[in-house]
Amino acid sequence: MAPKKQRKPVEVPEPSDDSESEEEPEVREPFPLLELPSEIRLRVYHFVLFTPTRKSGAAKNAGTVGSSAKKSKHIAPTSHRIALFLVSRRVHDEASHLFYSSQIFRLFPVQDFSRRPTVRALPRRHRPSVTTIELILGNSWTAPPRSWIVNQGLGLHDMALTRTLKIFIECDPSQPIFEGFRVSKDYYTEFAGNLMQQILERLPGLVQVEFDGYPSVRKSGDLMLRLLDETRMANKKVLWGPERGWTDHEDDDTQAEEDPADAAIDGLRSSMSEDFVDTLTTTLQGVTLET
Fold first, then answer.
1. Which partner for 76 in 53, 54, 80, 270 could form a disulfide, CB atoms 3.0-4.6 Å apart?
2. Distance CA 212, CA 49 (A)
3. Contact 106, 136 (CB under 8 A)
């Protein structure tokens, strides 16, 4: 047999002097966030809470109707918000107050595919932070949902900091175009007026009520007149939203008569998806209803 070859021993390189001279990594001290002025801390919280990622920013599930949908802020991913809230009790209190006070919450749900929580769904400990709420009227005008009721469970008595109530009207069923489809001319007007009265009674800290609506809604209509009466009897300031363009010195009666097609389209908005209504509007642009 041939003699076996002897393997040479493997030489392990000795550590160089350079590695011995390397310094240990510097240990960073925690950043003193709570020692910053409150204005700067709130700015930091705002970046964390309202800076969405590409994926979360593209998917906006705030609905399509009213200020709660069109003026809603993009929200950071849930994991980012929870991570901030869990830093400490003080950070949680400051950041959660900023989060809830910076948004508009609806009193009742409507059919516009919004995934944002309503006032009733908010945790009770966070309701006192809410400053602005919205009531959208005109939805389900033939049969309002049974859940549209003002009671202890709605939680209005907890909302001590609420100063603004926004009213957005999708349609006014008291208009002649709804004849034959509505329960009666005054049915929805009475429902909305009584609902408004109960809401104002449970919000003693409320300062102002802002009205807005779709083009077919008229300030001189029965529904708007009833809501304005309830607001003024409660001694609340009346404001006007940007979409309808109402002002204190302008009356709908002095304008050109509205096309009945506007009222019909706005009535569909309260029960159909926004994409369907937009497609129908584009198709019927040249059509005028005769009365």
1. 80
2. 29
3. yes
> Which run of H or of E encompasses 169?
strand 164-169
Residue pLDDT, tens place only, 76-86? 888 999 999 99
Scored b (16 or more CB within 10 A) or e, 82-96 reads eebbeeeeebeebbb
| Cα 115 from Cα 69, distance rounded (Å) | 10
CA distance 147 to 109: 9
Expressed in angstroms, the distance from the first to the final Cα of the chain is 116
What is the pLDDT averaged over residues 14-28? 64
Query: How far does Cα 24 stand from its chain's mean position?
Result: 51
Residue 44 burial (C-beta neighbours within 10 Å; 0-12, 13-18, 19+): middle
pLDDT in tens, 98-152: 999 999 999 998 877 677 888 999 999 999 999 999 999 988 888 888 999 999 9
pTM over 0.70: yes
Give the bridge partners for 164, in sequence order. Answer: 132, 208
Under 8 Å between Cβ of 170 and 211: no
pLDDT for the residue numbered 194: 96
**Residue 73 vs residues 23, 42, 257: alpha-carbon distances, Å:** 47, 16, 36
Phi, psi of 224 (to 5 degrees): -65, -40
pLDDT in tens, 180-231: 888 888 899 999 999 999 999 999 899 999 999 999 899 999 999 999 999 9
Domain segments of the chain: what residues?
102-283
From CA 119, how far away is CA 155, in angstroms rounded? 7
Q: Which two tokens stand for residue 188?
A: 């929805």
Other beta carbons within 10 Å of 36: 13
